[in-house]
Structures are given as C-alpha cells and as structure tokens.
C-alpha cells in the first residue's frame, strides 16, 4: 500500500518496460537510470513493481574464418581432437586418450600450452564455459590488439580466468568472456589463442588432463554440499556473491523473507513475496502464552511495509517484533487484552520511529533513493479468556469466519484509507470507492511522519467456534467481502490453521499476486493444549 501523500511516479521502466515501484531511481531489472526519464503523468497508488527477469544474452557476430590460400575457399573447420599437434618442444605427442590440444589450421603447428614455470609440467587448459559460442580454430584479426578485451567485431580465442566472477550483479559491469589477465606478454604471431608462451616442459605427460570442451561436464554437487559458499538455486554450480546473485549464471537468489511459514499449536501464519514485487515488505509474529489463571492466550501480529517509504521491510519487521514482545510481557501479568493491545501498538510505533533516527543506515540501504521515514501498517489479534481482541492502524484487516458456514462471517476492522473515508462521508458507496485508483492510499500508518498515532482496538465475544483471519491487503484484494473471505477459507481451518493459511496465500497468488501476501489463522476458542510460550 501507499501513503496518501505519495507523489506521481512512472509505472514501467522506459528501457525494459518492467513495472516500477514509486520512488525508485533505478530499474530493478535492467538498472536503467530513471532520473533521466520524464516522470509519469499520473499517480497510480497501487504499483506493481518488477520481479526477477532473465536477461537475454547479447548476440555476437563472429567473423568468417580466413582463407587457407587465395582460392576464395574458407579454411576448414576442425573439432578439437581432429589434429594431433605437437608438444611444447615441437615433438610428437604420445597417443593418450582424451589429450586434445589447440592447433593452428593455417600452419598445422600446435599452439603452446600453459606450463608451470617451477616444475615445467604442463598445466591443463582452462575450460571454456558451455554456454559461450567460441569458434574452435578461428585466427584472430591481426588488426586487433592481442591482449585487450575483445570486441564483438573481433572476438578472440581466449578463455576466462576462473578466479574472476563470470556474472556480476546488477550494479556491476559484466566482464566479457574471453580475457581476464591484462598483464600477459603478447602471444607469438600466428597463434590461434591467447595462451601464455610455454616454457620447456618435461617429457612426461602423465599430468595431462582431457580437454574440458570434449569431456563430460563436472557433476553438480548435491544440495547441501559445503563448497565454501552458498550454491545457486538455479544452476546448482555457481557461488552466490554478497549481493545475492550467482557468480556463474547471474540468477538472483531468493531472499529468506520471500516465503515464510510458522505454526504453533493454535495459530499459524504464511507470508509470500507475491508475483510482482521484488522483495517481501510484509512481516508477521505469532506466539502463545498463558494468563495468570493458566488459560491460554494466542497472539498474531501482521504488518505491511509502506512501499513509498524508505526501508519498508525493516519497518514491518520492527513493528511486528516490538508488538509481539509487548503482548507477551503484558498478558501474563494480568493486563486486560484490549489494554495490552493498545500498548503493543504504541510500542510498535516507537520501534518504527527509531528507524528514522538512523539516517546513516538508511543511506547504506539505498544511497540513490530519496530518504523519508520508514512506515508500515499494523493489525493484530489476541484470543484469550473467551475474548477476541483486535487492534489496527492502516488498511490491514481481521475477519471472523464461523465454523458453521450457515452463520454470517464478519470483518472486524475498518480501513484507514481514502476509500474508507469516502464511504464514511457518504460520498461513494463501497464498490465505487474501492474501484477508484486512490482506494489504497492510506490515511493512517506507523512511522515518524504519521500525522497522529490513533490506535484502534476492539473486543468481541463470539458465541460459537470459528477462525480469525488476520491479513494484509495482498490477500483481501482477492476476497474483499466477509462472504468472499469465508468462501476462500477451507472448511477444516479450525483443525488445520497452517494448511488454511497456505490455501489463502495460494488464493491470492492464483488471483494475480500483485502484492506481498501475509495471513495468520487463529482458531477460536483456543484449545487447552494451545497454551505455552514461544
């Protein structure tokens, strides 16, 4: 969701047409500098921001192979093992299986190989990445420098340095395949690659290895294998760099908060990034404790970061944790659940406000973005002592769904939003208000720049069993009315709260998943075995 004071912003990137989040200065998909493009003419409160997209590899036009003579006939194309070649001393090579070498097709001589200057033993050739189309025996253009990064008009036959990352992150230039060391001496004229000039090697070839271009690929290590770093979830071969991108294939790795699930005896919650956002800005906390009389008390807190604010993911996390800790401390002391809920909202607000007091951390988080106060919405429910207590600020909601579906369901909260204000003032009916593009502009939130903190709390005493659904607008956008929400909740929700939360998140994703989705499900009343601490 977005604050009412949010300004206009572009909806898509001018370069790659990917959806943008309001306030972004750089496209999350292609890195395009949005400050150089004109701003969009309209404000769109609900902004679909980009997800990870695959980057198409740039095409390379390879030059034709040079003529072998003046007959206008192109030079023949050989496979790596077609020509026997010679060793680094010019002698015949022993017939060893799999010992493939580069050969110059114009002279028939073997290209020198890397050798160890200390021992003289031949070193294996560096492998050429399987996805890179490299001509096997093309002679380089003599007009091109022999030891510079090759251009697309004159690709060279060098191989990349394995120590250098093959795929940089979105803010780093991607190194071109073909050269990684600029200090090598010029190769002898006529060679077909950039291998270093060889030094005299020993006659023994026992250390030689098969040419990696013709040998079988190295098996992918099994999941969970410790290889010095986290493995990429896409290619299962490359290491993940500090920025969360694979050094081998460049794939962005899922963050820990992209999908979260938690289940206790009497409450469960699920949060998902959705299908359009590049990160999950929602957060939740679920816990259970006991009242002074020993009866159980179950807590669920759900917060939704305001996308137009700085560090919304940090704001939602700080608010949910602070409120949960406040409730866990107050309820066992005998504080009335509704008063404990009010105090928890105040504690959550203070936690979010404290984030704005550290501008240095904000600049480190996103130095190119306009910095404003972190903000989020808040909604929580406590089931204790036969009471159902709810508290909220913003447009996240609580629904009551009875086990007996013949009884009516109900929405227990009122949105702090533009649409709710229009309905309350009698200017629009609910259908008209929520169809407007300004419907989700919120008028209340937690944050240092909030107009005034107005915690809303309410207590209910249901006369029948049911389930309490605590959720962000990422879910209720696809089940807005109480009847629609009740239809989406599984019939066995009271017995299987985690499964029900998973089903509800799936309902939102099937509907489009345009926002982060977070939902907690609490059965009512709480079974005695639900008591305990978390």
TrEMBL record:
Residues 181-196 have a biased composition (Acidic residues). Residues 197-217 have a biased composition (Low complexity). Residues 266-524 form the PPM-type phosphatase domain. SMART domains: PP2C_SIG, PP2Cc. InterPro entries: PPM-type-like_dom_sf (IPR036457), PPM-type_phosphatase-like_dom (IPR001932), Znf_ribbon (IPR059113). Residues 59-229 are annotated as: Disordered. This is Protein phosphatase 2C domain-containing protein.
């Amino acid at each position: 969701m977005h604050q009412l004071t949010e300004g206009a912003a572009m909806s898509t990137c001018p370069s790659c047409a990917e959806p943008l989040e309001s306030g972004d200065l750089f496209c999350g998909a292609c890195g395009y500098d949005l400050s150089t493009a004109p701003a969009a003419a309209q404000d769109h409160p609900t902004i679909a921001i980009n997800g990870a997209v695959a980057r198409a590899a740039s095409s390379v036009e390879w030059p034709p192979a040079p003529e072998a003579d003046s007959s206008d006939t192109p030079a023949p194309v050989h496979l790596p093992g077609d020509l026997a070649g010679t060793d680094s001393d010019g002698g015949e090579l022993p017939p060893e299986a799999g010992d493939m070498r580069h050969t110059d097709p114009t002279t028939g001589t073997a290209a020198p190989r890397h050798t160890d200057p200390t021992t003289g033993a031949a070193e294996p050739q560096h492998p050429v990445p399987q996805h890179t189309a490299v001509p096997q025996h093309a002679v380089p253009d003599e007009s091109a420098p022999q030891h510079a990064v090759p251009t697309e008009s004159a690709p060279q036959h060098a191989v990349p340095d394995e120590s250098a990352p093959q795929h940089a992150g979105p803010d780093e230039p991607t190194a071109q395949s073909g050269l990684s060391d600029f200090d090598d001496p010029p190769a002898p004229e006529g060679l077909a690659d950039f291998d270093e000039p060889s030094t005299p090697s020993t006659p023994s070839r026992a250390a030689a290895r098969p040419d990696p271009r013709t040998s079988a690929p190295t098996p992918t290590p099994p999941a969970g294998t410790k290889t010095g770093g986290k493995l990429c979830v896409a290619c299962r071969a490359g290491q993940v760099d500090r920025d969360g991108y694979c050094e081998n294939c460049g794939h962005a790795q899922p963050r820990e908060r992209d999908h979260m699930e938690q289940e206790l005896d009497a409450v469960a919650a699920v949060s998902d990034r959705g299908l359009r956002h590049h990160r999950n800005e929602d957060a939740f906390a679920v816990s259970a404790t006991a009242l002074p009389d020993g009866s159980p008390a179950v807590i669920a807190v759900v917060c939704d970061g305001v996308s137009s604010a700085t560090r919304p993911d940090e704001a939602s996390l700080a608010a949910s944790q602070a409120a949960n800790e406040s409730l866990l401390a107050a309820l066992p002391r005998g504080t009335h659940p509704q008063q404990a809920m009010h105090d928890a909202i105040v504690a959550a607000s203070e936690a979010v406000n404290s984030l704005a007091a550290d501008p240095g951390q904000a600049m480190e988080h996103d130095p190119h973005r306009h910095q404003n106060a972190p903000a989020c919405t808040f909604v929580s429910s406590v089931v204790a002592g036969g009471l159902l207590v709810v508290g909220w600020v913003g447009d996240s909601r609580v629904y009551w769904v009875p086990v007996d579906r013949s009884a009516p369901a109900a929405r227990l909260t009122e949105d702090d939003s533009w649409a709710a204000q229009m309905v309350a003032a009698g200017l629009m009916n609910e259908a008209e208000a929520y169809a407007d593009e300004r419907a989700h502009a919120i008028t209340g939130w937690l944050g240092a720049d909030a107009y005034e903190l107005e915690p809303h709390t309410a207590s209910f005493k249901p006369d029948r069993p049911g389930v309490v659904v605590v959720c962000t607008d990422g879910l209720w956008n696809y089940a807005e009315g109480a009847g629609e929400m009740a239809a989406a909740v599984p019939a066995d929700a009271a017995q299987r709260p985690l499964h029900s939360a998973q089903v509800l998140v799936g309902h939102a994703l099937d509907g489009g998943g345009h926002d982060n989705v977070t939902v907690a499900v609490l059965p009512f009343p709480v079974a005695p075995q639900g008591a305990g601490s978390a």
